[in-house]
Amino acid sequence: MAGPLSGLRIIEFTGLGPGPFCGMMLADHGAEVICVDRLGAFPFPGGVVNRSKKSIALNMKSPAGVAIARDLCQSADGAIEGFRPGVMERIGLGPDVLLKDNPKLVFGRMTGWGQTGPLAQAAGHDINYIALSGALHTCGRRDGPPTPPVNYLGDFGGGGMMLAFGMVCALMAVKNGAAGQVVDCAMTDGSATLTALVWSMLGAGMWNDERGSNLIDTGSHFYDVYETKDGKWVSIGSIEPQFYALLCEKAGLNDQDFGNQDDRSQWPAQKEKLAAIFKIKTRDEWCRLMEGTDVCFAPVLSMEEAPSHPHNVARDTFITIDGVVQPAPAPRYSETISDKPSSAPAIGGDGAALLKELGRNDAAIDQLRTDGVIA
């Protein structure tokens, strides 16, 4: 794969969610990512997070399977895993072993709670990690329950993307002469980092620690979503005074009801009146009136609608690989041209080729199959 990370080899010990997403991020930008899958594993539905990768399926309970995994890591720049603390050590693939084999290796560890701490060994999911970090508390409407934002904040934003960032940082350190090291990426830590702006506003006395009562958490009438006449939705983010003035002009808002933008005591009543106004027109009618202006407006598109919006089409924000529509790699570069992602590999489909790279001949590979070490 061509891309800014071309030439790097990453071994991904396949897990769920954030680990594969981290691997996808690295592969999207040119790294060779080799998934070490379990024998008999089923591919993740749709294959998006495994695009552009290679796969070898190993029996990790066999010494021969562990030996192959060690050989792969000796040939690599980095490795990532997403198991509970201690699992990799128990199977003989902990960082103490792999960094001794390859002192320049960057070993990325993806967990919910982190490698240390009272909860390190507890099970959990995205919703739990962002609950503990305080991020979930900020999501939702006033007087309503916290609303889980799918798995965007924990698994992917605070987890997989944060691990990809950490891997690139540590790989840059190795390039500059440092030793390999372990990257301890916890979704609780990462999702806490994503709340930096809210902590800044809270510290400045500009944020009320009550959900749905602030400038950008649906508390204000000028930063929210509104239902339209046809049962669809639009988004408004008219924070700055000049943008708010344009919203008032385009929506026909009178000064008596909407003249004071920053009086928080009026926000609930203003929100109710604005909701009634947006129901007068269809979503398309509001788009014709506001889209492309400085109102800070956009229609709320479904996943089926988003790929065909003219802006997304113009930027190739979505691509189709083997009939599967999916987001294109991001960000883009002015000089480096990256290859278009390829479809996800078959589980174990690259095993023979990778083993030959490691010096195994055909007879040895056949014996590994017979012994149930590889797929």
* Beta-strand content: 5-15%
SS-based structural class? alpha/beta
Ends apart, CA distance between termini: 25 Å
Shape: elongated
Rounded average pLDDT:
96
Briefly summarize what is shown.
By secondary structure, the protein is an alpha/beta fold. The protein has helices spanning 18-28, 63-74, 87-90, 95-101, 126-132, 152-175, 187-193, 196-203, 241-251, 255-258, 267-278, 283-290, 310-315, 351-357, 362-370, and strands spanning 9-13, 32-38, 54-58, 78-81, 106-111, 181-186, 223-227, 233-237, 297-299, 318-321, 324-327. A six-stranded parallel beta sheet has the order 3-2-1-4-5-6, with helices on both faces. It has a three-stranded antiparallel beta sheet with strand order 7-8-9, with helices on one face. A two-stranded antiparallel ribbon has the order 10-11.
Structure description:
The protein is of the alpha/beta class and about 375 residues long. Helices cover about 35% and strands about 15% of the residues. The chain is built from 15 helices and eleven strands. It has a six-stranded parallel beta sheet with strand order 3-2-1-4-5-6, sandwiched between helices. A three-stranded antiparallel beta sheet has the order 7-8-9, with helices on one face. Strands 10-11 form a two-stranded antiparallel ribbon. A hairpin with a 2-residue loop joins strand 10 and strand 11 (about 325). Helix 1 (about 20-30) crosses helix 6, helix 5 (about 125-130) packs across helix 6 and helix 5 packs across helix 7 (about 185-195). About 35% of the residues are buried.
How are the SSEs placed, and which strands pair?
Elements: E1 9-13, H1 18-28, E2 32-38, E3 54-58, H2 63-74, E4 78-81, H3 87-90, H4 95-101, E5 106-111, H5 126-132, H6 152-175, E6 181-186, H7 187-193, H8 196-203, E7 223-227, E8 233-237, H9 241-251, H10 255-258, H11 267-278, H12 283-290, E9 297-299, H13 310-315, E10 318-321, E11 324-327, H14 351-357, H15 362-370
Parallel strand pairs: 1-2, 1-4, 2-3, 4-5, 5-6
Antiparallel strand pairs: 7-8, 8-9, 10-11
